[in-house]
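Q&A log
Question type: sequence-to-structure
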Amino acid sequence: MKRLKTAVVGAGIYGINHLQAYKHSADAELTAVCDINPQIRERVGAEYGIRTYSRVEDMLEREDIDAVSIATPDCFHAAPAIAAIMSGKDILIEKPLATTLSDARAIISAAREFGARVAVDYHKRWDPAAIQIRNELSKPSAGKPIRGYMNMDDIIDVPTKWFSWSRNSSPAHFLGTHCYDQIRWFMGCEVTEVYAVGTKELLKSKGIDTYDTVQAFLKMENGCWWTVETGWIYPSGFAKNNDGRTQILCENALLRSDSQNRGVEIFDGTKYGTPNPYFMRESDGHPFGFGIEPINDFIRCLLDNKPFIADARDGLEAEKIAEAVHKSLETGTKVMIEREA
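Response status: OK
Response body:
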């Protein structure tokens, strides 16, 4: 059976997970990595025994590659994605597809022109709790969904210490994109209108000109209203790096999910912790969990010629919502979302 020859662009905080997935996959062969940081290239090259590059174009020209993961910072997805597509590679892009509609449409246009397939890593679709909720919603006995609530928040270290590019993103793009995609997936329909409010104070006082928190109100085609709260200013001492909850009220059912405490608690004398054992863990040196499974699915779908669970259209629709949220923040008015022709 053929093994897929893969490469990764961007080997930082999340890109390393793509390296791990490809390294341990029986169906893939990790071939090369591209990163602009020389220290990362040196470390990754030594650890994985692969060739490294500072320029995407050089890697694509010199290496025999079937598929490429794009794990660069959110605002820098388009250029390497389009370069890989134009070289005839299928790609997996870390969420979001892009942080502007123009970039998202440029990626999709290139994929159509060059016949490439594009998947987006919305890994919440692989979360067992999210799958359970979606299955419950599909039961006629639940009745019509009436209202929904979802929050996703990160600790303040994420925009202030983890990333140097947070001023080029926002809670709507970095976190909200997960929520918007998951809500579309839950509801099986699209968002028609958006109204949003937000605060831009704490991070701005630290020299990072982006929103602290964003509250968005989404109306779905099925009439269900959703409240979506996102932010990245939780205190550093919070029990986990992130927090999230979902609640959906239907005609005959109430569904809840708590993503903050997944059942494991750790007390070590310095900090109370609630790690997520389902997201990404190692066992006998092999990674597993719903943070890795989308990458494994990407490999399987390419080899078996099956549809992706989350594709470029899903990425485009989530970006439409994020852009509408930002437009509403700026204008103070509700924003209607236009469907593609």
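Response note: The longest helix spans residues 312-331.
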